[in-house]
């Protein structure tokens, strides 16, 4: 067991911060002595590390508490996600540094920069990490899907992935047609039915419409989907919107 001052010195944060985490129920010490001393276990220390990883990625404390207290939260999964997110953050910082270096040279008259180049590396979108964490741990449908897939064999999971990719390929062949055509709507219905089957959840049409919008708003979704054909994400968004509108009573 470690006392609060020892934990604060180890981590490099203030005692007051640890007191605050305790007060809001984010990090409760393993034990509090009769004299009021907070004592932290090794498990508490691991949780604190997890909290600080989330903070490094600009998560608010309220959201961190919500995520780590979910029954579906998996620490190993979270660490892998943190690693991925931090690599992405490093890439954006590297891009920003490159833009700064080019701007300095531009100011000295050594090079010319286009207006587009002057803003490379900036990202004013909503926290993409929080969105991904919400999708991973905060959505009931996703949790059910993960639970269902964990029960499948490797061969069964491979078959599901192949079926999903087949649907993407079919839709990619239709991406230059009208999203409200009979063929496009038949293809997008197959996608809707697939999602319901895999989540074990009655996927609402509003959620389906919002998911389609996310395919365009989140560049990571766009990049993954457009691997099957340029413009596929936008086509799917439009076709999903039409499908939701046509089937909403």
Automatic annotation (TrEMBL):
Question: What Pfam families has UniProt attached to this entry?
Answer: MerR_1, TipAS
The record's section on SMART domains has:
HTH_MERR
Q: Which residues form the HTH merR-type domain?
A: 1-70
Per the record, the coiled-coil ranges are none
User: According to the lineage, what is the superkingdom?
Assistant: Bacteria
What keywords are assigned to this protein?
Activator, DNA-binding, Transcription, Transcription regulation
For the keyword Transcription, the answer is yes
Q: Which PROSITE patterns match?
A: HTH_MERR_2
InterPro entries membership: DNA-bd_dom_put_sf (IPR009061), MerR-type_HTH_dom (IPR000551), MerR_fam (IPR047057), TipA-like_antibiotic-bd (IPR036244), TipAS_dom (IPR012925)
Q: Does the keyword Isomerase apply?
A: no
- GO MF annotations for this entry? DNA binding; DNA-binding transcription factor activity
Q: What is the name attached to this protein's record?
A: MerR family transcriptional regulator
């Amino acid at each position: 067991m470690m006392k609060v001052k020892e934990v604060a010195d180890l981590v490099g944060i203030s005692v007051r911060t640890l007191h605050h985490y305790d007060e809001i129920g984010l990090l409760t010490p393993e034990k509090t002595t009769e004299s009021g001393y907070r004592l932290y276990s090794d498990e508490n220390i691991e949780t604190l590390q997890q909290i600080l990883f989330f903070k490094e990625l600009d998560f608010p404390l309220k959201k961190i508490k919500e995520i780590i207290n979910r029954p579906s939260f998996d620490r190993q999964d979270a660490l892998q996600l943190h690693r991925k997110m931090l690599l992405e953050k490093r890439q954006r910082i590297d891009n920003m540094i490159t833009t700064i270096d080019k701007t300095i040279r531009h100011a000295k008259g050594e090079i010319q920069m286009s207006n587009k180049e002057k803003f490379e590396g900036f990202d004013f979108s909503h926290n993409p990490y929080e969105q991904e964490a919400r999708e991973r741990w905060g959505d009931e449908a996703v949790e059910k899907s993960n639970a269902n897939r964990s029960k499948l064999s490797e061969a069964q999971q491979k078959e599901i992935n192949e079926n999903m990719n087949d649907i993407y390929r079919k839709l990619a062949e239709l991406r230059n047609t009208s999203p409200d055509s009979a063929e496009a709507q038949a293809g997008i219905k197959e996608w809707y039915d697939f999602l319901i089957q895999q989540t074990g959840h009655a996927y609402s049409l509003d959620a389906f419409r919002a998911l389609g919008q996310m395919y365009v708003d989140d560049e990571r979704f766009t990049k993954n989907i457009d691997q099957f054909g340029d413009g596929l994400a936008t086509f799917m968004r439009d076709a999903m919107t039409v499908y939701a509108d046509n089937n909403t009573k």
